[in-house]
């Protein structure tokens, strides 16, 4: 509907789309529920996933980052091994495939040329493909065997926000439905947990002033910024760094906390901002150890943690959600911090230099 593509009172599409995320999650829950209120996915898609001995997720950019989270969800919930590949690399570097691979293409636009090239190649080899996209009838949707829609509504800002969270939500539903088919009792009530996520996102969308403040405090004068985390938090850090570089042009990189000492820590100087995510119980102490290491070398750490795992030194605490679903929530501060950092630097938030919303050339 036309009102979807109006900015309304928002100064930028990116801010509007960030704010839409709670609604999008609720819409996805509704779209993927059957009449009994159970999560449901087309049986042929469930069969294709269930019947596969290894899943290959192929994507670019933000969609690739959603794929990294998707791997964890599918492996932990459904118990099927998953590999995640950047499309442009996969194209000429095909790994040794198992007997029954299934390819999942994640693409907001459904038009990305690098992803399409891989789709064409694997179809030629006779393999099955599922496209997860926001655009019904897009090229990747038409050319794959199956499609799952994101129902996120049009995403106009070049920097992707609601498509990322929608991709993760849809992947979680796919993982959950397949897990139940495989008789894996995980006691996870995903409808309820995604509802909690939507509420938590709302709290974060109401914390804009605080995000603006963090952006001012840490990113006003810096030329670089690092994001660290472990597990899910590492993947969200990659996305946080991508958001920041895309729209504010600050050199930003995401690193696995444990890898710091193997090289990256050499980059830490007096005042270097390091945004550390701490939403995972099993690595909470380790990531805090990494924060101490960088702080001892002069870094300016900004810890964003989750309620229940929080400590006094944390700069911001996000509401608690299920530990498999934290990326849906922890990414919101990343998006908003990047937004305000770009704003403070007078950057064109919705149309950053050198970037296109949809890259249809290889
Ligand atoms: C472009 C956009 C990114 C996006 C990537 C993949 O580079 O600027 O925001 O993540 O393409 O796009 P897709 O439509 O395939 O998800």
TrEMBL record:
<comment type="subunit">
    <text>Homodimer.</text>
</comment>
<keyword id="KW-0963">Cytoplasm</keyword>
<feature type="active site" description="For Fru-6P isomerization activity">
    <location>
        <position position="357"/>
    </location>
</feature>
<protein>
    <recommendedName>
        <fullName>Glutamine--fructose-6-phosphate aminotransferase [isomerizing]</fullName>
        <ecNumber>2.6.1.16</ecNumber>
    </recommendedName>
</protein>
<dbReference type="GO" id="GO:0004360">
    <property type="term" value="F:glutamine-fructose-6-phosphate transaminase (isomerizing) activity"/>
</dbReference>
<keyword id="KW-0677">Repeat</keyword>
<keyword id="KW-0315">Glutamine amidotransferase</keyword>
<comment type="function">
    <text>Catalyzes the first step in hexosamine metabolism, converting fructose-6P into glucosamine-6P using glutamine as a nitrogen source.</text>
</comment>
<keyword id="KW-0032">Aminotransferase</keyword>
<feature type="domain" description="SIS">
    <location>
        <begin position="214"/>
        <end position="352"/>
    </location>
</feature>
<feature type="domain" description="SIS">
    <location>
        <begin position="45"/>
        <end position="184"/>
    </location>
</feature>
<keyword id="KW-0808">Transferase</keyword>
